[in-house]
Specification:
Shape: globular
Largest sheet: 7 strands, mixed
Number of domains: 1
CATH superfamily: Class I glutamine amidotransferase (GATase) domain
Radius of gyration: 15 Å
């Protein structure tokens, strides 16, 4: 059975991993006949958002501990991920990607990627193992894969401009499809960058994951 490593950015669309995208990704991996294995960096979140009020709560939370909510406790520190043990990589979206896995939310194209996230993503790229980036997570692609790497966040002009400014080649994509950079074995799909429902998000995610597992 093929094994897919999944990096979660916490728990919750506004400050962590997008829950719908994460669960849909795990389901799609199983439906494609592979197994998922969740990881998260053992670091504090950038901040904590009260999702009911839409405001900062002033709390401090840990990304790994929060990610365990989605994985039902079955999650390991990202520092323990060994690329040689897995066939593919997948990163669901959520603002935690731009806040916890990187500094994109505050620095756009000048962003830095969290050290363990960068190590793991580059390891899969170097090993030429397929990787899928969902929703906002494709903003990491240019810093991981270098100039010319193709990816999509849908069609948001500002985010696409930042993607291109970092050296990537942004490709507009509808919610129910994905972009494949064949030479890099790299996939991306807009999901909730465009989706207005769970079923819309699932349309692109399920196609991406099916191709990801096929390439693995």
């Amino acid at each position: 059975m093929k094994k897919v490593a999944v990096i979660l950015a916490g728990c919750g669309v506004y400050d962590g991993a997008e829950i719908h995208e994460s669960v849909l990704s795990l389901l799609a991996i199983e439906q494609a006949g592979a197994s998922w294995h969740c990881f998260a960096p053992d670091v504090d979140q950038h901040h904590v958002i009260n999702h009911a009020a839409g405001e900062e709560s002033g709390e401090t939370r840990n990304v790994l501990v929060e990610a365990a909510r989605i994985a039902r406790g079955d999650v390991k520190p990202l520092s323990e991920l060994n690329v040689n043990e897995f066939d593919a990589l997948l990163l669901p979206g959520g603002f935690g990607v731009a806040k916890n896995l990187s500094t994109f939310a505050t620095s756009d194209e000048e962003m830095e990627i969290e050290k363990e996230v960068l190590r793991v993503c580059k390891a899969f790229a170097t090993a030429e193992k397929p990787a899928g980036y969902v929703c906002i997570s494709p903003v990491l692609i240019p810093k991981v894969y270098g100039p010319g790497a193709k990816g999509t966040i849908g069609n948001d002009p500002q985010t696409a401009a930042a993607f291109n400014a970092m050296g990537g080649e942004h490709i507009d994509c509808p919610v129910d499809d994905f972009v494949l950079d064949q030479s890099r074995r790299l996939l991306s799909t807009p999901a909730y960058m465009l989706a207005t429902s769970v079923s819309q998000a699932n349309a692109g995610i399920s196609k991406l994951v099916s191709k990801l597992v096929e390439l693995a």
